[in-house]
Amino acid sequence: MANRYIYSIFVISLIGFISVLLSFQILDQKGEGIALDTAGTSLYTNPVFEPILADPTVIRDESTGFFYAYGTEDNWGDGKGNRLMPILRSKDLVTWSYAGNVFNKKPTWKDQGGLWAPDINKINGKYYLYYSYSLWGDRDPGIGLAIADKAEGPFEDKGKLFTSHEVDVPNSIDPSLYEEDGQRFLFWGSFGNGPSQGIHGIPLSVDGTSVPDLKKKFKVAAGDWEAAMIHKRDGYYYFFGSKGSCCDGANSQYHVLVARATSLKGPYLDKSGKNINRRGAGTVLLKGNDWMVGPGHHSKIIKDDNGSNWLLYHAIQKDKAKVTGGASRRVLMLDKVSWEDGWPVIGQGFPTMKSDIKPVFKN
């Protein structure tokens, strides 16, 4: 009788213990743990916005707490035509709403092209948006600048910084600003095989509105990279970039790789010690799977109020790969970046499909 009583107490205690565990964790279909807030408010599920926000760049308006995301010009297939670099707004990086476009009409410093791959920054109290102006196969694409007093605009175009011919870097697109010790550098460049192809950096003027000397460019990566971004952490400069086909619908092969250096100008080496100034180098950070393909061209790293790092990027859902009209349906994705042995890691190296803990922002 005593043994039966002890056994009953043990079973009840075990059930209680399991119940406590389940209040903090559930299992997905693969048996992996998912942290769960019992109120159900701390989880999010990818994608965080659809149908399209390609090549996202993000900034927070500290006065309101709202995040603003900007993306490449695209036709969303809803009958409203091309959005000239759409703007989204969010309080938490998870729930986004459409807030308008950067431009109502295209800048006139170039005859034709699309407005691609913007990069948003706050300089001297204003919002600086560097952007690409290019056609597919364009022989002379370039990079321009628009400035606004508020993150939501209106933006005033300030014209070009340079074109490919002027700076002698073919396929001059995909700008990304890096600031350190009062100096501003623009990194840019994209795919190609020419001798001067690849990712380059160049010093900007103090106010960030011009390039004083086009001859001061320096090359940091070969011509099999695009969408470069520099992030500094613990004494290292981390080079993040994308490779592969970005926009082939379900066949897109885009993926994100990383390398690092002890100097801003490099050399940037991957985990195996290869210099990314040579083609074929780079350590894979994120690639497609059976659900999402073509993940890449991400934002700068965003730190939440708990100190966690996050990336927004685009990817293409294989079973919903294009919108009406044929554009690749590049949805907006969000994933946490962890650090292991000095290198960034995103989950299992694929876009996160399961529900996960969302970023923490207190106001």
TrEMBL record:
Pathway in which this enzyme or protein is active: Glycan metabolism; L-arabinan degradation
UniProt-listed SUPFAM superfamilies: Arabinanase/levansucrase/invertase
Positions marked as site (Important for catalytic activity, responsible for pKa modulation of the active site Glu and correct orientation of both the proton donor and substrate): 174
CDD domains noted in UniProt: GH43_ABN-like
Gene Ontology annotations of biological process type: carbohydrate metabolic process
One GO MF term: hydrolase activity, hydrolyzing O-glycosyl compounds
Superkingdom as given in the UniProt entry: Bacteria
Key words, A-Z: Glycosidase, Hydrolase, Membrane, Transmembrane, Transmembrane helix
Membrane-crossing residue ranges in chain numbering: 6-27
Entry-linked Gene3D superfamilies: Glycosyl hydrolase domain, family 43
Catalytic residues (positions): 55 (proton acceptor), 226 (proton donor)
Ranges in a coiled coil: none
Family indicated by similarity: Belongs to the glycosyl hydrolase 43 family.
The name this protein goes by in its record: Arabinan endo-1,5-alpha-L-arabinosidase
